């Protein structure tokens, strides 16, 4: 490991408080970079203005007196108020409540205790129950949790229950999906302008669809099960403007690691993080999901990205329900605005044991690793595996450390075996992974992202050093409390697998 706590080039970004133009909280050595960004301010404000048809929606938010951010507008609409400001407490109508096998049983218990043993949920079609965390294990308590979900869904006639009964072969369970945040998107439950709550901190992932999405506790979920409402405090919004062409060696994971490194793991506590700019607009939906997935690692209440043609195209055929996109007003007020010139960013990692322990991948070359893990809601989507395959393909080499692949969902797993990797002459990801010597893609689930029972596939049962595409690197997160996790993009993870040390993907992609 490099002796210094290397941080990315300060010229890659600067921060400015909206009310104090030109103030830079982080030193910048490049006046050129600042001038360039300053010029973009007015240009970018124009780019996030609401499209004509959605800029004002009196029917849903009343007459707008003061500009509101997307988050404020969505909560105003959901609480049937014409105007909201940060700090307001409002009863919000929930569009979707998601729970899973870890928190579902507790939420159900609270619902039954508070509403009665024979109570009915508020809306059987707005509750989505997804077993995904501790699935492929012989742990009886974990298996029992899924049974509790199944009994409840049968009793309540829940419409969206993605069940798994045969643990010996996930493909024998056509309803089974896998990791909840990816499944929610793939099954059309993420829709612009709506409120999606889930008993999981990474529920914020769905903000990629221009909706308000956040994690809640079991008690709140029990209340939502009974009423369809929740009291929420409106968060102030931090605005992140990312401009510039994305270099071919970067992925959204690098962008969010840059941001968290910049503002720290507490930098967005109970704040909305709104992502805009030409770089964000160029990202596909799965990359946008990566960006929003990790806002909670900065303490964010929610992350949000304006819906656009990329969003609408992704949603085609996934939902038949009407939705109404919401956009920030040009006069909206932000707590702070951060601007980044992404073309100058370099591949990053977050070193143990915090997602804000940012370092340049190229400065961690002396970190010898034992394994690589590609999976989770952050880094186990189809695009993540396509990115990893691209690196293996470019190198033509074999991995030097065990490389574990855990597709987030059954759909992702299928993609690995069917989608041709661009530039490969028709090879699939699975063929490329096999040629590179990776482990066979595992059954879709949360896997070892959060450790899980001892028999969980790829769990760190010993103090290993791992480069991982997941989102948290706290002690014990993937199993052993002395394990060391370097969070990285799928490019960096694949490059590191090929060398056996933390590796900048430019070693193979240029
Ligand atoms: S993949 Fe990891 S971060 Fe995502 S929901 Fe599962 S345990 Fe949580």
Descriptive overview:
- With 510 residues, this protein is of the alpha/beta class.
- The chain folds into two domains: 27-58 and 68-345, 2-Layer Sandwich (Aconitase, domain 3), CATH 3.30.499.10; 357-509, Aconitase, domain 3 (2-Layer Sandwich), CATH 3.30.499.
- It contains 17 helices and 18 strands.
- It has helices at residues 31-47, 58-61, 70-79, 104-115, 140-156, 180-186, 218-227, 252-263, 278-282, 285-293, 309-315, 376-379, 382-395, 410-418, 429-436, 490-499, 506-509; strands spanning 13-16, 89-93, 96-100, 127-130, 160-161, 195-198, 212-215, 229-233, 237-243, 272-276, 302-304, 336-341, 348-350, 358-360, 371-375, 403-406, 465-468, 484-488.
- Strand 4, helix 5 (140-156) and strand 5 (160-161) form a beta-alpha-beta unit.
- Helix 4 (104-115) crosses helix 7 (218-227), helix 8 (252-263) runs parallel beside helix 10 and helix 13 (382-395) packs parallel to helix 16 (490-499).
- It is globular and about 55 Å long.
- The structure holds iron/sulfur cluster.
- Residues 133, 179-181, 200, 202, 376-377, 446, 449-450, 470-471 line the site of iron/sulfur cluster.
- Residues 85-359, 362-500 form the Aconitase/3-isopropylmalate dehydratase large subunit alpha/beta/alpha domain.
- One of its GO terms (molecular function) is 4 iron, 4 sulfur cluster binding.
- This is Aconitase/3-isopropylmalate dehydratase large subunit alpha/beta/alpha domain-containing protein.
- Keywords: 4Fe-4S, Iron, Iron-sulfur, Lyase, Metal-binding.
């Amino acid at each position: 490991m490099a002796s210094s706590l290397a941080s990315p080039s300060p010229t890659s970004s600067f921060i400015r408080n909206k009310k104090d133009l030109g103030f830079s909280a982080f030193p910048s050595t490049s006046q050129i970079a600042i001038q360039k960004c300053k010029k973009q301010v007015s240009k970018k404000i124009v780019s996030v203005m609401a499209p004509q048809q959605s800029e004002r929606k009196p029917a849903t938010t009343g007459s707008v007196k003061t500009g509101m951010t997307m988050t404020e507008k969505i909560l105003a609409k959901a609480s049937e108020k014409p105007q909201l400001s940060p700090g307001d407490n409002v009863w919000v109508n929930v569009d979707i409540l998601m729970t899973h096998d870890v928190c579902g049983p507790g939420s159900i218990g609270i619902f039954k205790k508070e509403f009665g043993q024979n109570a009915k949920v508020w809306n059987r079609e707005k509750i989505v129950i997804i077993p995904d965390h501790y699935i492929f294990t012989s742990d009886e308590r974990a298996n029992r949790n899924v049974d509790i979900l199944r009994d409840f869904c049968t009793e309540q006639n829940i419409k969206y229950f993605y069940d798994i009964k045969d643990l010996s072969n996930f493909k024998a369970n056509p309803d089974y999906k896998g990791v909840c945040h990816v499944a929610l998107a793939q099954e059309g439950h993420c829709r612009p302008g709506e409120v999606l709550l889930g008993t999981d901190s990474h529920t914020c992932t769905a903000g990629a669809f221009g909706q308000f999405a956040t994690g809640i506790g079991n008690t709140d979920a029990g209340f939502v099960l009974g009423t369809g409402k929740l009291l929420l405090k409106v968060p102030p919004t931090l605005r992140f403007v990312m401009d510039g062409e994305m270099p071919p060696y970067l992925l959204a994971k690098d962008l969010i690691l840059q941001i968290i490194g910049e503002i720290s793991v507490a930098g967005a506590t109970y704040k909305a993080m709104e992502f805009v700019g030409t770089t964000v607009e160029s990202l596909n939906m799965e990359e946008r999901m990566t960006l929003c997935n990790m806002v909670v690692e900065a303490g964010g209440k929610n992350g949000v990205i304006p819906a656009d043609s990329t969003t609408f195209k992704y949603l085609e055929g996934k939902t038949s329900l009407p939705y109404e996109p919401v956009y920030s007003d040009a006069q909206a007020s932000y707590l702070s605005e951060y601007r980044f010139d992404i073309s100058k960013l370099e591949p990053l990692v977050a070193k143990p044991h915090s997602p804000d322990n940012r370092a340049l991948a190229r400065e961690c070359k002396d970190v010898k690793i034992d394994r690589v893990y590609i999976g989770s809601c952050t880094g186990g989507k189809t695009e993540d595996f396509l990115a990893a395959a691209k690196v293996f393909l470019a190198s033509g080499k074999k991995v030097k450390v065990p490389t574990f692949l855990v597709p987030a969902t059954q759909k992702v797993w299928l993609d690995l075996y069917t989608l041709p990797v661009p530039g490969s002459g028709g090879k699939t990801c699975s063929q490329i992974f096999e040629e590179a010597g990776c482990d066979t893609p595992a059954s879709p689930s949360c896997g070892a992202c959060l450790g899980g029972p001892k028999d969980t596939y790829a769990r760190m049962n010993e103090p290993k050093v791992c480069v991982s595409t997941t989102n948290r690197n706290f002690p014990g997160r993937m199993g052993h409390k002395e394990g060391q996790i370097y969070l990285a993009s799928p490019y960096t993870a694949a490059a590191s697998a090929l060398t056996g040390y933390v590796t900048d993907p430019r070693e193979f992609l240029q």
